[in-house]
Amino acid sequence: MSIDIANESGVEVSLEDLVSVATFALGAMDVHPAAELSMVLVDSPTMADLHQQWMDLPGPTDVMSFPMDELEPGGRPDSAEPGPEMLGDIVLCPPFAAEQAQKAGHSLEHELALLTVHGVLHLLGFDHAEPDEEKEMFALQARLLEGWYERDRQHRRDAAVAARDERVLGSIGFLDDSGPDAGRSR
Question: How many helices and strands (H and E) does the chain possess?
């Protein structure tokens, strides 16, 4: 995946986490690995302008998605060989998301991860205008977000085990390359 991300919001956030959750969601949705996505984080006045211009609604919102191509999981069904596609743009508003996170009782980081998954699903054609669509989209959104968190927990567990192994092996000289057994298999 190629994900370009820019933070123009004035709010410090982990861009690495947003790229990670977007990459995870796109992979789980079987989007071609060469697909391209653009993400921009903006301030409230900029989001309010976009919301008015594109949705004819006043005030800022949390996330907006601007799809470029009509995609289905696995690529375009009318294409002989699914290939790289420009998915579109996701615009996030961290100041607005911070207010939502506070009301919901969770962190801004969690809210932005959730909104990133939400934006990805919109780019892939999911919507929540009708009750059945909302149920499907929000259930998928929850599964994808939980899958990303589980992968992150597993990566942390693996890193902790690797660090422990390195400490233990280093403390008994197993990793020392300078001794008489250097170069010999143990």
Answer: 5, 4
CATH of the domain at 146: 3.40.390.30
Contact in structure between 136 and 83 (CB atoms under 8 Å): no
Instruction: Give the rounded distance of the alpha carbon of 32 from its chain centre.
Output: 16
Q: Is residue 164, in this structure, part of any structural domain at all?
A: no
Q: Please, is 36 exposed, middle or buried when counting C-beta atoms within 10 Å of its C-beta (0-12, 13-18, 19+)?
A: middle
Of the pLDDT bands very low, low, confident and very high (cuts 50, 70, 90), residue 167 is confident
Residue 73 lies in a domain: yes
Question: Rounded CA gap, 76 and 84, in Å?
Answer: 10
Query: What's the distance, Cα to Cα, between the start and end of the chain in Å?
Result: 40
- Whole-prediction pTM value? 0.80
